[in-house]
């Protein structure tokens, strides 16, 4: 995203949401890498949830993570 990320409305909304909730962060690191969350099932279940940030501060839905985690079936040993 580099510099264009600073001009996106969603990035600023996410920043102010985090700031109002008291998050300060350490501001160390690269700062241009977007993250993601994967929930991967056992054996051949594969990927049950794939969330990749589209812009800085884009959060994954906790209920969707819990729902995907509940779908994980134990692998027979």
Question: Would you kindly provide a written description of the structure presented here, covering whatever features stand out?
Answer:
The protein has 77 residues and is of the alpha+beta class. Helices cover 27% and strands 14% of the residues. It contains two helices and two strands, in the order αββα. It has helices at 9-20, 62-70, and strands at residues 36-40, 47-52. A two-stranded antiparallel ribbon has the order 1-2. It starts with 8 loop residues before the first helix and ends in a 7-residue tail after the last helix.
How are the secondary structure elements laid out?
Blueprint: H1 9-20, E1 36-40, E2 47-52, H2 62-70
Antiparallel strand pairs: 1-2
Instruction: Please report the total strand number as a whole number.
Output: 2
Structural class: alpha+beta
Summed up, the helix count is 2
Q: What percentage of amino acids are in beta strands?
A: 5-15%
Distance between the termini: 44 Å
Give the oligomer, counting copies of the same chain as homo and different chains as hetero: single chain
Low-pLDDT stretches: none
H/E series, N to C? HEEH
Number of structurally distinct domains: 1
Radius of gyration: 16 Å
């Amino acid at each position: 995203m580099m510099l264009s990320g600073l001009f996106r409305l969603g990035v600023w909304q996410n920043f102010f949401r985090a700031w109002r909730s008291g998050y300060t962060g350490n501001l160390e690191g690269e700062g241009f890498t977007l993250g993601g969350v994967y929930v991967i099932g056992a054996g051949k279940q594969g990927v049950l949830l794939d969330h990749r940030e589209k812009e800085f501060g884009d959060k994954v839905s906790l209920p969707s993570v819990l729902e995907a985690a509940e779908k994980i079936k134990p692998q027979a040993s």
